[in-house]
Amino acid sequence: MTTIDIEKPVEASRAKRLKARTNTTHERLDASIMAGRPFEDRRRYGLFLTVQHSFHRDIDALYSSAVLEGLLPDLDGRRRLDLIGQDIVDLGIAVPDVAEAPVFDGDADLPTALGWLYVAEGSNLGAAFLLKEAAKLGLSEAFGARHLAPAPEGRGLHWRTFTAALDALELSKEEEDRVVAGAEAAFRCVHGLVRETFG
Known about the structure:
Layout: H1 14-21, H2 23-35, H3 42-59, H4 66-69, H5 81-90, H6 110-125, H7 127-135, H8 155-168, H9 173-198
């Protein structure tokens, strides 16, 4: 009898490994958001916007990081805090006045920052469904739901460009773990904001 060596499958990309390792936390967050009924009416959608604003305020400094800009394509063009602010103004509600310093303010641990950005950019990929729900409230890419609009090149390509750059980075095992920890922390942060805002 001949023994045949079976090739091991090629290791999944970093983005796919991140998805697998954070899946439970991500699903818990999605369920929590939808339990808050953010598209029931404009008032509840306004609560959703305040959650979005708080999260993107926490990570806004990452989008102007020269180090990260050198690693990830069009990073500054991916920021959404200002668009969320415009959506809040469209709805006639107050922009949240947060006393605490944002999570990231200046230099950040690179692997940790990558985990947080993975969460932020991934949420934009799934925003097509949210935009359709917002449209039922009379909102659009030009009014009240600007931050949910797709990139000019389309959501899929926008995401693939980001994940290709993320996958190409050379990181140690310990740094890989910090990327995962960063993504988990980002999901937990949003989950906390949802609980605090929607009750």
